Amino acid sequence: MNIRLVRVDDLLGMQACNLQNLPENYTLKYYMYHALTWPQLSYVAEEDGKIVGYILAKMEEDLPDDDEAHGHVTSISVLRSYRRLGLAKRLMLQSQEAMATVYKASYVSLHVRKSNRAALGLYRDTLGFTVRDIEKAYYADGEDAYAMRLSLKDLAR
């Protein structure tokens, strides 16, 4: 299994992975914007040229004066038959490292459905994220989200 930076020709495979796994879907233009604006932050997992997982990440823009530079995980997905192999963890760690070293991010944030126990286990128990807030009706179907955060200060160079 190969983990590498996303390329423009990966975007359709990323979108297919997203459509197969997640209720939150994005236009190709949105993937393109991330890939071109923050090219060091998004990665794919591939096997034999097939995209089997991805992380789509960015740096937060238009921050208030009192906030530190930080990254955000927009979306992460791994095809069902490739889960429990550590791919999501590897994708997260690659992106977090780049946020800290390339963009000097002090932390990374993400949102996760309150019902997504597998993702919560990865973020909280494996990676060390903490819940900062609950955002009511964050998702289109009305489900609440945990707003989570992880300090990247130990990764900063």
Task: Describe this structure as you would to a colleague.
With 157 residues, the chain is of the alpha+beta class. 30% of the residues lie in helices and 31% in strands. It contains four helices and seven strands; from the N terminus they run E-H-H-E-E-E-H-E-H-E-E. It has helices spanning 11-21, 28-37, 87-102, 117-126, and strands spanning 2-5, 43-47, 50-59, 70-78, 107-113, 130-135, 145-151. Strands 1-2-3-4-5-7-6 form a seven-stranded mixed beta sheet, with helices on both faces. The model has no long low-confidence stretch (mean pLDDT 88).
N-end to C-end Cα span? 28 Å
**Mean pLDDT, rounded to whole units?**
88
Q: Strand portion, in percent?
A: 25-35%
The biggest sheet, with number of strands, parallel, antiparallel or mixed sense and barrel status, is: 7 strands, mixed
Topology overview:
Elements: E1 2-5, H1 11-21, H2 28-37, E2 43-47, E3 50-59, E4 70-78, H3 87-102, E5 107-113, H4 117-126, E6 130-135, E7 145-151
Parallel strand pairs: 4-5
Antiparallel strand pairs: 1-2, 2-3, 3-4, 5-7, 6-7
How would you concisely characterize the structure shown here?
This protein is an alpha+beta fold and 157 residues long. The protein has helices at 11-21, 28-37, 87-102, 117-126, and strands at 2-5, 43-47, 50-59, 70-78, 107-113, 130-135, 145-151. Strand 2 and strand 3 form a beta hairpin.
